[in-house]
Amino acid sequence: MKGIIVDDEARSRRLLHTLCDEYCEGLEIIGLANSVSEAKKLIAEKEPDLVFLDIRMPVESGFELLKFYDNNFSFEVIFTTAYDEYAVEAFQFAAIDYLLKPIEIDELIKAVEYVKELRNHTPQPEKFEFLQELLAVQKIEKIALTTTDGFTFVHHKDIIRCEAESNYTTMTLMGGNTHLITKTLGHFEKLLFEKDFFRIHKSHLVNLHAVRKFIKSKKGGLVETVDGMQIEVSSRKRKELLERLSNLK
Q: What digits encode the pLDDT tens for the residues 51-94?
């Protein structure tokens, strides 16, 4: 897999290049660019599979590079950014891979491995447009879901529950629709915790606003969601669940 690095800071380019060479087996960095204009030339010449793309750069931002291709580009993108916590949340909600500076080795390896899995996947420019919208506002309401056949946008309030399926997650929405998402349940646990979602069992994450009833039992108990589904509650999660339910706004 061939990759290039686009970043206006020489030190950042060199460091990421070194980390990729040392820790990312199967990835060859074939070029470095310090601006969008230089990146355009490099992409045309080298035809990379992957572009590490900084967002905040002088003259033109990383988004301007993607706009240049008029929503039709053949490479995968991993953003590299020093944005604040809000922006990081926006990246997660847009289901876009990113590396937060200073870059951690484990996160780099994970991001590159994920791209390897998507080698035959056509990038979805709508994701990048969605990310730009999220970065422009201070309230995140929708989430981009990367499914096995593309992606879709849903309001987090429309999610009833998420169920672990090995390294995937099955998400059930209001109205009964389900989606198989190419992310682990742990990913959604972190992403949706502040949105009143709670992991009641190792295999289930539920929207607390979608809980209709708590049923006592000798063990942890059961919760019944608005679609009538009854889900086991881990005994060690029971106390915290009841506290979270009682504190719902």
A: 999 988 888 988 899 889 876 788 889 999 887 766 777 888 88
| 3-state SS, residue 222 | strand
- Separation of alpha carbons 107 and 103, rounded Å: 7
53: β partners: 6, 79
In a domain, 86, yes or no: yes
Please tell me the distance from the alpha carbon of residue 171 to that of residue 114, in angstroms, as a whole number.
20
Structure pTM? Answer: 0.74
Q: Where are the beta strands (DSSP E) in 156-246?
A: 159-165, 168-173, 178-181, 197-201, 204-207, 211-215, 222-225, 230-232
Neighbouring C-beta atoms of residue 22, cutoff 10 Å = 10
Prior bond of 58 cis (ω within 30°): no
Q: Provide φ and ψ at 28, rounded to 5°.
A: -115, 120
- Overall number of domains in the chain: 2
61: its two tokens: 């931002």
Give domain status of residue 143, yes or no: no
Q: Would you say 81 and 100 are in contact if contact means Cβ atoms under 8 Å apart?
A: yes
